[in-house]
Amino acid sequence: MATMEAYTANNTLKPEASMKKTRLLKAFSLAAMALACCVALAACGGQAATSNGGSTPASANQQVIIGTMATEDILPMWVAEQEGLFTEAGVNATVQVFQSAQELSTALASGAVNMAMTDAQVSATLQAGGVNMVMEWVTLGSTASQGRFGIMTSPASGITSLEQLAGVPIGVGSNTVPEYVMDKLMERAGVATDQVVSEEIKKLPVRYEMMTSNQVAAAALPASMLALGEATGMVLLADDTTGENISQSVMAARADWAQSNAETIKKLKDVWNAAVKEINEDPEKYRALLVEKASLPEAVAQTYPISTYPEAEYPTNAMIDPVLDWMLEKGYLTSALTYDQTTGAFQKA
């Protein structure tokens, strides 16, 4: 499952470390700036800006741009491109890959992309920053077995259980799915909240390398890095593939675009469902595509488990409400939001 943290293979930036309960909302200063130039960028998203800040419906000839990170969560849309499912449905759609979560969030906020594969944390943060959002469907995580996040350590750490991490810094990025999963897994293990310590390491490759070299005791990581760690001798302490379903990725859109393009979204859901059927019936058929598009490491390219994918349905309140409560408690939201599972929309509480 996707994480909306920055993920660049050739990143050479050093991580900025800070202790727990880091309360950063950097993405929203960027989102606010991006909104100011929404009219200029709207054409890039295949829509025309209106005088009241809305958007006109995309015609058959207008391109719908679906933003994503390079992650398995978007595989059905890559299959749709490869198999010509967009063309069959009469939708001129393309998938655009971004190198960082910040770039993707800014593009979504500005209208430079029409939809994006993201998560509830990013969607709620954009909503709180003044960009009305709709989460159209779950891309991975309709069940606990779909997608994976977990906490990993190196053999050199000597750590073999989550209980041993009480009071010990864990590498993670603030206001992300890995942090949320980390907190929930530590809670399951009986570790008191005030003993869960975060060390801010935003860049995933840097976080992984610091874990493998024992520069940080453990790290909260997404599925591909957990698989790489397992293949190279690292120690998985816990993941979220059993028990309570605590992580999802979603297909989100700006509410104004979604309202003006309901028929297009319906077609895209049909395309998603058709691609899901193809993958779930013969996942190995699309291994090469997944390896290429998601840039899976060579060490796991032939063994990485290909997930089953859910059909397009709104995330449920059971999925989203705990995330919103967590964000408010951590200070990532300054005021409460509510979520409506019948529309995929947020409102102020």
Secondary structure tally: strands? 12
In percent, how helical is the residue content? Answer: 25-40%
Provide a count of the helices.
Answer: 13
Q: Report strand order across the widest sheet.
A: 2-1-3-10-4
Extract low-pLDDT stretches. 6-56
- Give me the Rg, rounded: 19 Å
Based on Cα principal axes, name the global outline: globular
Query: Can you write the helix and strand succession as a string?
Result: HHEHHEHEHEEEHEHEHEEHHHHEE
Overall pLDDT metric: 87
What separation lies between the terminal Cα atoms? 29 Å
What structural category do the secondary elements indicate? alpha/beta
Strand content: 15-25%
Largest sheet: 5 strands, mixed
Furnish the topology, listing elements before pairings.
Blueprint: H1 26-36, H2 38-42, E1 64-68, H3 75-83, H4 85-89, E2 93-97, H5 101-110, E3 115-118, H6 120-128, E4 133-140, E5 149-153, E6 169-172, H7 177-188, E7 197-200, H8 204-212, E8 218-222, H9 223-231, E9 235-239, E10 249-254, H10 255-260, H11 262-281, H12 287-293, H13 317-330, E11 337-340, E12 345-348
Parallel strand pairs: 1-2, 1-3, 6-7, 6-8
Antiparallel strand pairs: 3-10, 4-10, 5-8, 5-9, 11-12
Helix pairs in contact: 1-5, 3-11
